[in-house]
């Protein structure tokens, strides 16, 4: 074992917070704690952990209960899908399987939770990489943007021989939870300070992950008239360009009524703008107006995509020619 590993384990023995699931070996109890901690802070999770296990102390008790009852006991902990998953899982297995691979197949268990249960309850040598471990290892080894797989391989390679892997995993997590904090890590008190490559510039390790903006749903209505497609002058960021009507889905009935059409779906297109991601449902309808050849107008990229989606149908109708590629 390397010196930093010894230092971490010694620190953990002295400093681990006395949490109710600490030292627990029952896989089901460990699972309940891990599932609760997926989206809930430690202090908040403790009362729910106690209440849940008081009412359902074993998998059999959970299996015998109705989902409604399970949800009632879970009430207040939030993210009810977690309770649903636990209940579904109790219907699927008589006992929790003892290997990481098998645990991974159960509802609601991702790689982290499966590894936590496998290592803590069953002593399997598998690294549990949560957000805390990701941060500690990225800083310790000065990795700016480690990929999930890379990080898992690194963590797996660091499991020391002859040490309970559950204890090791918890030691790394604990360090991340109380010392190697996301902002202002407490480096002077850290048992790994002498070994840490990233401590002088901890903000870089790991670099914040770019959050993807949620997709915004819109509808593009392609109206096929006698001479082509109905186009409008666009406003806002597309000022000066042309396109088909583009609007939020809830406006569809009103827009159809304005043009006197009933549209049908022609598919979807995705489009990324600087700070927005759009998911646009392309709808088409035959329309009694005139319309025009859209390719003679300046179109933003998004409208080109929309029209290319609608185009096979438009071309089929023989009204709008396919543009030269
Ligand atoms: S020395 Fe600082 S940055 Fe490095 S592991 Fe410890 S707390 Fe984190």
UniProtKB/TrEMBL annotation:
SUPFAM superfamilies registered for this protein in UniProt: DNA-glycosylase
GO biological process: base-excision repair; mismatch repair
UniProt xrefs under Gene3D superfamilies: Helix-hairpin-Helix base-excision DNA repair enzymes (C-terminal) (1.10.1670.10), Hypothetical protein, domain 2 (1.10.340.30)
Alphabetically ordered keywords of this record: DNA damage, DNA repair, Glycosidase, Hydrolase, Iron, Iron-sulfur, Metal-binding
GO molecular function list: 4 iron, 4 sulfur cluster binding; 8-oxo-7,8-dihydroguanine DNA N-glycosylase activity; adenine/guanine mispair binding; metal ion binding; oxidized purine DNA binding; purine-specific mismatch base pair DNA N-glycosylase activity
CDD domains xrefs: ENDO3c (cd00056)
Entry-linked Pfam families: HhH-GPD (PF00730)
Cofactor(s) named in the record: [4Fe-4S] cluster
Residue ranges annotated for the HhH-GPD domain, each copy included: 36-178
Keyword hit for DNA damage: yes
Highest taxon in the source lineage: Bacteria
PANTHER family on file: ADENINE DNA GLYCOSYLASE
Family: Belongs to the Nth/MutY family.
Name of the protein in its database record: A/G-specific adenine glycosylase MutY
Organism: Thermus parvatiensis
